[in-house]
Amino acid sequence: MRGWLKATIGLVVLSGLLVGADRIAVGVAEDQAADRMVSSGRMNQRPDVSIGGFPFLTQVLSKKLDDVRISADGLTVGDGSHQVALHSFKAQLSGVKVSDSMNSATVDSGTGSGLISYADLAQLLPPAAQLMPGAAKLPVGSNTRLSLSYGGPGKIKASLGPLPVGEGSVHSAGNTVTADGFQLSGLAGMFAGITNQKIEPVSFTLDSLPAGLKLADKDGVTPLEEGLQLNFDGKGVKLLG
Q1: pLDDT higher than threshold 70 for residue 139
Q2: The pTM is what?
Q3: For residues 241 and 102, what is the distance between their CA atoms, to the nearest angstrom?
Q4: Is 163 exposed, middle or buried (0-12, 13-18, 19+ CB in 10 A)?
Q5: 120 by DSSP, 3-state: which?
Q6: What is the DSSP letter of 193?
Q7: What count of other Cβ atoms lies within 10 Å of the Cβ of residue 190?
Q8: 4 membership: H or E segment, kind and range
């Protein structure tokens, strides 16, 4: 009886030590992964990294992590000439294959999301002078940009200074985001002497998206009350290296 009890206690202690070592190892790996994402250029700010699955050490031996989650706030995205803040970025990566030294990593599949405020979104659109003929006749400056806000499911509202432009839609193809369907009010058209009051569609292409992901093929952008949500996905993504 005493021998059995001693063996049981020994196994419990050993299990505790192994679990402790496993948790220490995963913490070190999470910190290393966060640093490598910045140094490799996949993220422009150090993210929080969480590696799921237990035990971690067996995943290391197989060189494949089942579940890696990334979050960060204050990242930036842009179109090559303008950079704006990407808030509340979160991503879930599955099947992350890593090298021995964690210098390289590829992802079987990943999804994520982040948010651009409407004020920042407007900075990625051209000024009024490039959106329509006769903009100089409007009672706003030629460098005035559209002011944007939530317009309901799939819609955003816009105005040029005090002049309402109405509702338009926003959608994506690849990493290119397009806003279209806006139309000047009758008053604005009268000011500008514009017979065709529609504003030409405006587009911008985002580069350097976080974690090597891209805008999702379906519903890559979703208007919300707090801003434009970007929805990401990717297969065979190069996370590091």
Answers
A1: no
A2: 0.82
A3: 9
A4: buried
A5: helix
A6: T
A7: 12
A8: helix 2-39
Say yes or no to pLDDT of 176 above 60.
yes
Half-sphere exposure of 102 (CA within 13 A, CB side): 15
The arithmetic mean of pLDDT across residues 16-36, rounded, is 70
Cα separations in angstroms, 85 against 74, 213, 217 = 6, 17, 22
Distances 239 to 41, 102, 235 between C-alpha atoms, Å:
10, 11, 11
Cβ(214)–Cβ(205) below 8 Å: no
Tens digits of per-residue pLDDT, 48-60?
999 887 777 777 7
Task: Give the up-direction half-sphere exposure of residue 91: CA atoms within 13 A in the CB hemisphere.
Answer: 34
DSSP type of residue 221: E
Pair 234, 92: CB distance under 8 Å:
no
Give the number of residues written for the chain: 241
Record the tokens describing residue 184, joined without a space. Answer: 């000047």
Model pLDDT, residue 11: 44
User: What band does 240 get if pLDDT is binned at 50, 70 and 90?
Assistant: confident
Contact 232, 70 (CB under 8 A): no
The amino acid at 161: G
User: Could you tell me where the beta strands, DSSP code E, fall in 79-185?
Assistant: 83-98, 105-116, 147-150, 155-160, 163-173, 176-180
Write out the two tokens for 29.
């790996």
